[in-house]
Amino acid sequence: MNVHVSMSRAHETRLDRLAEVAVRVGLGLRPGQELVMTAPLEALGLARRITAEAYRAGASLVTTLYGDDAATLARFAHAPDDAFDRAAGWLYEGMASAYRNGAARLAIVGDDPSLLSGQDPDKVARANRARSRAYQPALELIATFATNWTIVSAATPAWARAVFPGLPEEEAVARLWDAIFAASRVDGEDPVAAWAAHNAALRRRTDRLNGRGYAALRFQGPGTDLTVGLADDHEWCGGASASRSGIICNANIPTEEVFTTPHRLRVEGRVAATKPLSYQGTLIEDIAVRFEDGRIVEATARRGADVLARVLDTDEGARRLGEVALVPASSPISASGLLFFNTLYDENAASHIALGQAYSKCFREGGQGLSEEDLAARGANRSLIHIDWMIGSAAVDVDGLTAEGGAEPVMRRGEWVD
């Protein structure tokens, strides 16, 4: 009993530290600022801790919207066919209005990776497309860092069963929490200081890449020979950065990546995913695509191919890249040996690319003052979606290509070349 009580207290302590990191490091929440939070019902305990921490940090109001997997499945089981072309635009317009007026954004994620795997792919795609269109006003504000935002995770039973399928549910959830705490750097006595050191290390990496000024990156490995041209005047980012409101935030907890904006017309070659993509309840495995003139012209997947095809047809920008990111194969998340079936985690185990919307902050001086026309002229992509998927591993090399045509090693066998 004493051991159990001790373990329970340790868990509670780490939950409190995760809430502190979410508010103090992830959001950098300012006194008087509102917070809009979304969370699954199973994350109620963490959401309450974050709410309390936000108020301690001076939040004026915390509004939390909860999601329910059972309600989502009820829609697919009973809703009329035409319902899948609708989304709660009024809700997303309200969220966008909150962000325009300075509210911070926090998402707690813990999705069931296979929630919609047994549902009609056409209905899934239509529902996703309708939501993407309705969400666009809010997504644009997030993608342009108009306000401070962050994402953290909570261990839910369905997610834990996917990561640890051979364990009893209670043990699987405990193991997943341990992995979340470790990746989020809350195991130590001073997680805020640990994040400051980590952010400094990421800053050194982005400074080095910005100093080199590569025109493109080339990825080579099994099934991959891909050249990703970089946008004109691009800038590498990673770790803590300033929103357009001037607040320093860490958009992802955890994060191991440095990233920038590709040129939407200058991507050529083939690339094979090195991890599955979990997308809104559907698991898409063994993705392989070919780019011409920046656009995906061939795409296959061993599982979830129908969903992938419909994602690519969301709009014209869905077949082009909005982000390229570098992550060493020895990152803590990769070193855990776990496949999380969750993009927030798996993207920080491997270098990756993202289909869809570009981040305007990945331009010199944070893209401030650049209009949509300016961004497009520099090569930034525009889309209703932004979906990361992993292309790096210990078998993948990355070269930086100079404007003069030279090649310099950036990564060998998934690790940085210093």
Task: Write the topology of this structure.
Blueprint (H helix, E strand, L loop, with lengths): L1 H26 L6 E7 L3 H13 L4 E7 L1 H10 L10 H12 L3 E6 L11 H23 L5 E5 L3 H7 L5 H15 L7 H22 L3 E6 L2 E7 L10 E2 L5 E2 L8 E3 L1 E11 L4 E3 L2 E3 L3 E5 L2 E6 L4 H8 L8 E6 L5 H4 L7 H4 L5 E5 L15 H7 L7 E5 L6 E5 L5 E6 L2 E2 L2
Give a verbal description of the structure:
- The protein is α+β, with helices and mostly antiparallel strands.
- Helix content is 36%, strand content 24%.
- The protein is built from twelve helices and 20 strands.
- The chain has helices at 2-27, 44-56, 69-78, 89-100, 121-143, 157-163, 169-183, 191-212, 305-312, 332-335, 343-346, 372-378; strands spanning 34-40, 61-67, 104-109, 149-153, 216-221, 224-230, 241-242, 248-249, 258-260, 262-272, 277-279, 282-284, 288-292, 295-300, 321-326, 352-356, 386-390, 397-401, 407-412, 415-416.
- An eight-stranded antiparallel β-sheet has the order 14-13-10-6-5-18-19-20. Strands 2-1-3-4 form a four-stranded parallel β-sheet, with helices on both faces.
- Strand 3 (104-109), helix 5 and strand 4 form a beta-alpha-beta unit.
- The relative contact order is 0.13.
